[in-house]
Amino acid sequence: MRRLLFALGMIASVAASGASFDHQHKPWDALVERHVTWVSDHTASVVDYAGFREDRPTLNQYLASLSQVSESQYQSWGPDQQLAFLINAYNAFTVKLILSEYPQLDSIKDLGGLFTSPWDKAFFELRGQQRTLDELEHEMIRVEFNEPRIHMAVNCASVGCPALADEAYVAGRLDSQLDAAVRAFLSDASRNRYAPDTNTFAVSSIFDWYGEDWNEASGYPNGVRGFLWQYRSAFETPPTDQSDTLNATLRFLDYDWALNDNDQS
Which residue among 102, 208, 214, 243 is least packed, with the fewest CB closer than 10 Å? Predict the structure, then answer.
């Protein structure tokens, strides 16, 4: 009987902790609303890292709430709650990493070394273990979800990245938020464009690095080209023929690793 009562108590505890987590991510929502600004006709954003530095106590409290979520608590959530949690965690911990050396850096790559990467630093705890940003993106988000649109939602603190959104990702609006992130990114002709005269897409290197994520299991049996056709209306000059699009040449543009700072430090 004692064992039964103990087990029931543990279940109740996990349920209570799960219910207490703020799936609206209100602290992060307030932070990005205050410190992220859309630019270039709402196709890119810049970040007020100096402002984030002033609000570091609030940021740290939010990060602590993420770190307190156990694996069992995380597994008790629905898929959209899980994915929103991981996207927000990636973006928020990336800001924390930038602040560790800000303003003495011009790029997130400055936080690495000759043989180390900033994405390989184990500097935070998530789901009960010390983690790196690479683990969060490649071993959690990409492995647990067949959702290539996440590449337009996770932000690497660089000009070449898709925009850091000025709102938190939340389960109830996740699909529409990911859709908006894709459309904003593809609308930026400096990073993604289509040339009808040569039937060529000049697109972000993201589509080269992670092209395998656009596959039949994720809903894109025609790969990256099928994805670009689906979102064709986002392009400044959109393709008009599906057959041509699915046979188009893909050219991958150089990636700009400069810090996406608004220079208000």
Answer: 243
Q: What is the pLDDT of residues 145-157, one digit of tens each?
A: 999 999 999 999 9
What is the reported pLDDT for 19? 53
The upper half-sphere exposure of residue 81, i.e. CA atoms within 13 Å in the direction of its Cβ, equals: 14
54 in a structural domain: yes
Assess if residue 32 is contained within a domain: yes
Are 84 and 169 within 8 A, CB to CB?
yes
Nearest to 126 by CA among 159, 154, 89: 89
- Is residue 113 assigned to a domain? yes
Which residues sit opposite 195 in a β-bridge?
200
| Residue positions counted in the chain | 265
**Enclosing domain of residue 85:** 21-252
- Specify the number of domains making up the chain: 1
Burial of 34: CB neighbours in 10 Å, binned 0-12, 13-18, 19+: middle
Tell me the C-alpha distance between 53 and 99, whole Å. 7
Query: From CA 58, how far away is CA 128, in angstroms rounded?
Result: 22
Assess contact for 31 and 58: CB atoms under 8 A. Answer: yes
Please give the pLDDT value at position 188.
97
pLDDT digits (tens, 9 = 90+) for 82-140: 999 999 999 999 999 999 999 999 999 999 877 789 999 999 999 999 999 999 999 99
- The answer to whether residue 97 sits within a structural domain is yes
Residue 33 scores a pLDDT above 90: yes
- pLDDT > 90: percent of the chain: 89
Amino acid at site 111: L
